[in-house]
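Whiteboard transcription, Tuesday session. T.W. wrote the C-alpha cells on the left side:
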C-alpha cells in the first residue's frame, strides 16, 4: 500500500466515523452565537452573493458533499451531482436529499462523462494532493469557462489556527489535510483558472468565539470586541502579503 493509498483510507475512516470518536466535535470549541456572528459579518454575505451569481440553473458537481453543501447548491439549481469518499456521508446525504445524485468517488481521480458548468466545494481542496495535479483534474472536470467555487479553505500561516490544529483537534480533522499558504494556492489555481473573486477572513477574531465558550460571563463584552476586531481585519487585508495570515479563503475561479 502506498502512502497515498493510506492517506485516503485515513480520510475515509474519519468521515465514516470509524476513528477520531474520542476527540471533541468541532462545535464544542466555540460559543455558537459568537461564531455565527463572526461569519455573518462578511463571509456569509459573500457566500450567498456568489451562490446567487454563479449557481442558478447550472449543472453542478459538489466535491466532498455533505448536507450543508447540498442545501446551499440545491437552493439555486436542480442539476446537482455530489461525491464523497465516505459511503456513510453519501448514505446520510441520500437520506436527506433524495433528489441529489450522490455517489461514492475519489475526488482526486474522478472524471465525469460530461464536464460540469460548476464545481462547488467547501473545505475540501486542502484534503486533495498533490494540489498542482488536482488543479489540472478540476479543470478537466469543467467545461471551458466553467466555474470552480471554493469556499472555506483553511490557511497554513495563521498562528492561532495552526496552534488549534496541533493542540485542539476535532473529530473532523484528518492526518492528511494540508492547509494552504494562500499566495501559493492562488498561484497554483492561476495556471488553469482566472480569479473572479477571492477574499480572506479572520485573522485573530476566531479567538473571541473560543473565549466566549471558555469565559461565558464575559460574553456580553466579547460581542462588541468581535465586531471591532473584524473591522480592523478588513482594513489589514490591504497590507502586502497580509492575506497569507488569515484563517480561511473563499473564491470563484473561471476555467481558462
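and on the right, the sequence the group agreed on:
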Amino acid at each position: 500500500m502506498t502512502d497515498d493509498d493510506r492517506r485516503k483510507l485515513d480520510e475515509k475512516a474519519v468521515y465514516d466515523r470509524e476513528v477520531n470518536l474520542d476527540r471533541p466535535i468541532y462545535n464544542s470549541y466555540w460559543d455558537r452565537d459568537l461564531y455565527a456572528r463572526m461569519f455573518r459579518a462578511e463571509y456569509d454575505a459573500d457566500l450567498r452573493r456568489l451562490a446567487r451569481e454563479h449557481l442558478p440553473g447550472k449543472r453542478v458537481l459538489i466535491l466532498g458533499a455533505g448536507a450543508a453543501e447540498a442545501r446551499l447548491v440545491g437552493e439555486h439549481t436542480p442539476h446537482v451531482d455530489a461525491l464523497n469518499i465516505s459511503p456513510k456521508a453519501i448514505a446520510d446525504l441520500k437520506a436527506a436529499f433524495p433528489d441529489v445524485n450522490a455517489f461514492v468517488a475519489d475526488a482526486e481521480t474522478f472524471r465525469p462523462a460530461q464536464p460540469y458548468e460548476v464545481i462547488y466545494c467547501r473545505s475540501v481542496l486542502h484534503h486533495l494532493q498533490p494540489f498542482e495535479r488536482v488543479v489540472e483534474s478540476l479543470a478537466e472536470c469543467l467545461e471551458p469557462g466553467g466555474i470552480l467555487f471554493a469556499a472555506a479553505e483553511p490557511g497554513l500561516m495563521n498562528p492561532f489556527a495552526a496552534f488549534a490544529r496541533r493542540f485542539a483537534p476535532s473529530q473532523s480533522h484528518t492526518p492528511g489535510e494540508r492547509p494552504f499558504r494562500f499566495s501559493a494556492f492562488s498561484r497554483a489555481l492561476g495556471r488553469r483558472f482566472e480569479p473572479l473573486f477571492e477574499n480572506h477572513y479572520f485573522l485573530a477574531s476566531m479567538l473571541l468565539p473560543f473565549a466566549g465558550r471558555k469565559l461565558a460571563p464575559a460574553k456580553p463584552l466579547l460581542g462588541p470586541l468581535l465586531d471591532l476586531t473584524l473591522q480592523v481585519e478588513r482594513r489589514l487585508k490591504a497590507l502586502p502579503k497580509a492575506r497569507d495570515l488569515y484563517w480561511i479563503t473563499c473564491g470563484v475561479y473561471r476555467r481558462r
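Someone added at the bottom: The chain has one domain: 3-255.
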